[in-house]
Amino acid sequence: MGQRGYLLLKADLSYSDEKAADEQIWDLIQSIEKIRGIEYVANTVGTYDFVATVDSQETIESVAEEVKNIIPDWIKEVTPLTENNLFKKHRELKDLEILDNMH
User: Fold this and answer.
1) Running DSSP on this structure, what letter comes out for residue 44?
2) Which of 9, 10, 34, 92 has a CA that sits 20 to 30 A from residue 61's CA?
3) In the chain, what are the domain boundaries?
4) What's the confidence (pLDDT) of residue 15?
5) How many CB atoms lie under 10 A from the CB of residue 59?
């Protein structure tokens, strides 16, 4: 059974200047987005460094394990959040509402 959800990521990125930081962040984002089931990765400010959206035929936890192993020196913590399917219909209705407003 497939799952939708999110991964909250803490990273340990070390760099000498802003250009190196941007390159390292971009490399990490591209590496994570290559993992099957990852839709999108955003760099964030706050408790977590990145958030990834997941839509996978695998469990969110198995995708999280794959992310942990991609660059173990950089990824320090992965917190999986599974979307509550109870509100799936609500999301679908909101998507339809957005489409209707586009006309």
Assistant:
1) -
2) 92
3) 3-101
4) 65
5) 17
| Amino acid identity for residue 40 in this structure | Y
Predicted TM-score of the model (pTM): 0.77
H or E stretch covering 30: helix 18-33
Q: Taking the mean position of all CA atoms in its chain, how far away is CA 46?
A: 15
Assigned architecture for domain 3-101: 2-Layer Sandwich (3.30)
Task: Write out the DSSP string of 56-77.
Answer: ESS-HHHHHHHHHHHSTTTEEE
Which single residue is written with the structure tokens 């998507």? 95
Q: Is the dihedral of CA 74, 4, 37, 30 positive or negative?
A: negative
Of 47, 34, 41, 58, nearest in space to 7 by CA:
41
Q: How far apart are CA 8 and CA 75, in angstroms?
A: 11
Q: Looking at residues 27-47, what average pLDDT do you find?
A: 93
pLDDT band at 5 (very low <50, low <70, confident <90, very high): very high
* Both tokens assigned to 43: 């760099």
